[in-house]
């Protein structure tokens, strides 16, 4: 049994049926437990709901946890390894979507899109105090620092350069690219915009300090919320240390009512959908289908992590 643990849109469901075949994949809502399928599941198509050690222990036939995406921090990897369950991801399938979302968040913060959209809908777009326009800006002419230089950052960098930005990056080691490599502390201190493109690990958790960033800078996070201490981020935004933030990911998801980020006018927020486009889903499901085929045929799996 192949199980998709998600809340798929009609288009997502149609893509699953088109690629796997109608009725081949069992859908379980992401808010529901997997208890009812634990005895029979052989492959789990995983999106975001954590795959726990308890579930893995209760699923005797489980052979594959296939992440629809890149980050595997929501999977109990040690438990999977101990149970002989393969874990695979799919680097590169969502890179275009994430790069475009990061760019859109940068622009939304700099051009104050949400602020002016709300005023325009209220009939007040032309009556805003002229000083409000002093707080907008352009990507061109700014230094954009990319923390991590994987697939999404590599797609984003030339677009930013074409817009007139100076692109700098930090990674485990310098790359052969036409952008300046900087140590992370220097990148944070010198960049007008910082965009995060690294996985969440014990090493990277809370590793980006908003107060280490340049006064008046913009933070964009389409990677993982826990890369940044959320309390310090709120303080940096409310104190004016940061100009604004564009956030697609959060320490707790879904973002709970009452979270202080919800009340900040200089934060543009999205519900972890940077990766989620119909194009990404087709690419992702194609890889997942191939790995399920390989699992059944006893062949080596693609992008195996465990």
Features:
single chain, 306 residues, alpha/beta, Rossmann fold, 2 domains, seven-stranded parallel beta sheet, five-stranded parallel beta sheet, 9 helices, 12 strands, 32% helix, globular
Describe this structure in words.
The protein is α/β, with parallel strands linked by helices and 306 residues long. It has two domains: 2-93 and 277-297, 3-Layer(aba) Sandwich (Rossmann fold), CATH 3.40.50; 95-269, Rossmann fold. The protein is built from nine helices and twelve strands. The strands form two sheets. The chain has a seven-stranded parallel beta sheet with strand order 8-7-6-9-10-11-12, with helices on both faces. Strands 2-1-3-4-5 form a five-stranded parallel beta sheet, sandwiched between helices. Strand 1 (2-5), helix 1 and strand 2 (25-28) form a beta-alpha-beta unit. The longest helix has 20 residues, at 278-297. It is globular and about 65 Å long. The relative contact order is 0.14. The model has no long low-confidence stretch (mean pLDDT 97).
